[in-house]
Amino acid sequence: MNDYKMSQIKNYLSLVKFSHTIFALPFALIGFFWAVKLQNNELNYLTLALVILDMVWARNAAMGFNRYIDRNIDAKNERTIVRDIPAGKIKANSALLFVILNSLLFLTTTYFINITTFYLAPIALMVVLGYSYTKRFTALCHIVLGIGLALAPIGAYLSVTGVFAWLPVLLSFVVLFWVSGFDIIYALQDEEFDKSQKLNSIPVLLGKSNALILSRILHGLSFALLLSIAYIGMFGLFFWVGVLIFGSLLFYQHTLVQSNNLTKVNLAFFTTNGIASVLFGSLAILDLYIKI
User: Which residues touch 232 (CB under 8 Å, ≥6 apart)?
Assistant: First the structure.
């Protein structure tokens, strides 16, 4: 593969922040393995591969569309002007074609999973793509992003069982509150810019201090729900340790960010949440196979 093709691949991976797939993927895997172990279903490696691919296609489409829709806004913001489309690394029309391709791959892949996921796939796609418009008319854009990622565990569970169940639905609410909370923290960086462009966010609506309080409340709800799941599901030691680690890292990220000091937002947003997701996901799945 020549240097130009490698450079293009890197640009598209940068466009969608591919590494951030790690946020929701562990929760999708929990949903998948819950369906296998708790419902005594056969472990089908093809279905597992299709679920992972669907996660990748959906997130690529969502992130690519966000960058395409926001390209003119990003070009005005000093923080985001270096992104791939305003920086000229990827043409806008190429990004749109990338979104269309990944959307079609997502819908096609769900067809080969089961009929339930196939019928629900267009709704999921509308949610994850529709998020990109929300900051233009509502401060609840963070909640919509949370809903988009919250589809991961219940979607993976449906991929195996084809039916809804309470535990994966509760886990989806954990993701909803968790993602909404950390997205509010991330949005603190653009409060003044968003005001100048008449864009909506919780920091714009409430101010930095109150936005941080709401973020803490959402993360508190996320942690409380995880404790409830651990109790209701009668999970073992590994799951409980995972819950405590996850909660501790949620608390830690709030020690990093203050309303008058945003220098560690990226550490709180990217590193802490990525570690929290991977560790909790690993321990939750391990608990299904090794009971202590």
Answer: 166, 167, 170
